[in-house]
Amino acid sequence: MTKYITESTEYLQKKGFDNPEVGIILGTGLGQLISEIEVIAEASYNHIPNFPTATVEFHKGKLIYGILAGKKVVVMQGRFHVYEGYSLQDVTFPVRIMEKLGIKTLLVSNAAGAINLGFKKGEIMLIDDHINLQGSSPLAFKGVEELGERFTDMSVPYNHDINSKIEAIAIANNIKLHKGVYASVVGPQLETRAEYRMLNIIGADAVGMSTVPEVIVANHLNLKVAAVSVLTDECDPNNLKPVDIAEIIAMAGKAEPNMITLFKELIKTL
Ligand code: HPA
User: Fold this and answer.
1) If residue 43 lies in a helix (H) or strand (E), which one and from where to where?
2) Quick one: CA dihedral 126, 149, 85, 34, positive or negative?
3) Which atom in ligand 1 lies closest to the alpha carbon of residue 185?
4) Could you give the percent of the chain with pLDDT greater than 90?
5) Whose CA is nearest to atom 8 of ligand 1?
6) Which CATH architecture has domain 2-269?
7) Does 21 or 148 have the greater pLDDT score?
8) Which helix (H) or strand (E) segment is 231 a member of?
9) Pocket of ligand 1 (CB under 6 A)
10) Where are the alpha helices (DSSP H) in the chain?
11) Per-residue pLDDT reduced to its tens digit, 24-81
12) Is the pLDDT of residue 248 over 90?
């Protein structure tokens, strides 16, 4: 893996990805942040050596390097999911590349269903902790100890200082921000009523199909991590309506300006 990481990193450095401080992963329907960036360089996923092969859906995926709120950032426009057939090592490979490029902080966003029925669609949840329900670990491979501590500590997976800053920014900007536990499932099917009930019982406030693998690897690499869920649907097992993906994406877009404010204002303080 070390050789692959070096190859991919050198390719990006040659393209002008010069020592970004912050890495950002944008979730489904959450691409508007890009328009706020002064873009300096970009690379399509299917041109970066050793990047997972792009699926059809993935055509537009690219890594962008530029300036946001005065800081050098590298942004993943589109991410890889296990439900597309990628391994957990594939899904998290870009995090290892961003770390090698120089990032010290990783900010992650996703679209998620609200399990906590006090949380409403269109609102945002700051992730305080998570439950990995993807059935395996992105660190479960031979040679992982060459890249970091195999038995990675997960007692504080999301950085407390950054989360406090995000909470203060939310208050200052009148943004309703919940805080809670994100459970990550494989998907791509949505959950059954019984599964939503179970998620509630085990302590999840939101559910989605991403983020946890990337956060585990970011912790493996000792990066500071923060993540927010844009809540796109309400998962009430006693009143469950058929899923409407178009509505989920539309709802992500609606809440997105608030997410952008949180990230932009945070980056100014880093
Ligand atoms: N379940 C899983 N993933 C999701 C959901 C959901 O209800 N909403 C948005 N992403």
Assistant:
1) strand 38-44
2) positive
3) 2
4) 84
5) 113
6) 3-Layer(aba) Sandwich (3.40)
7) 21
8) strand 224-234
9) 111-113, 190-191, 207-209, 232-233, 235, 248
10) 2-14, 88-101, 160-172, 193-201, 212-220, 245-269
11) 999 877 888 999 999 999 999 989 999 887 665 555 789 999 999 999 999 999 899 9
12) no
Distance 240 CA to ligand 1 centre (A): 13
Euclidean distance between CA atoms 168 and 261, whole angstroms: 12
Q: Rounded to the nearest whole angstrom, what is the distance from the C-alpha of residue 55 to the centroid of ligand 1?
A: 21
Q: What is the pLDDT of residue 57?
A: 56
Domains of the chain by residue range:
2-269
What whole-number distance in Å separates Cα of residue 189 and Cα of residue 83?
Answer: 9
Contacts with 142 (C-beta within 8 Å, 6 or more apart), sequence order? none
d(CA 128, CA 227): 8
Rounded-to-integer distance, Cα 148 and Cα 222, Å: 9
Q: Mind listing the pLDDT tens digit for each residue in 134-192?
A: 999 999 999 999 898 999 999 999 999 999 999 999 999 999 999 999 999 999 999 99
Helix then strand then coil, in percent of the chain rounded to 5, is: 40, 25, 35
Output the CA–CA distances (angstroms, integers) from residue 196 to 81, 182, 185, 189, 200, in the order listed: 21, 13, 11, 13, 6
Sequence-separated (6 or more) residues with CB below 8 Å from residue 149:
220
The pTM score is 0.95
Spatial contact of 107 and 24, defined as CB atoms under 8 Å apart: yes
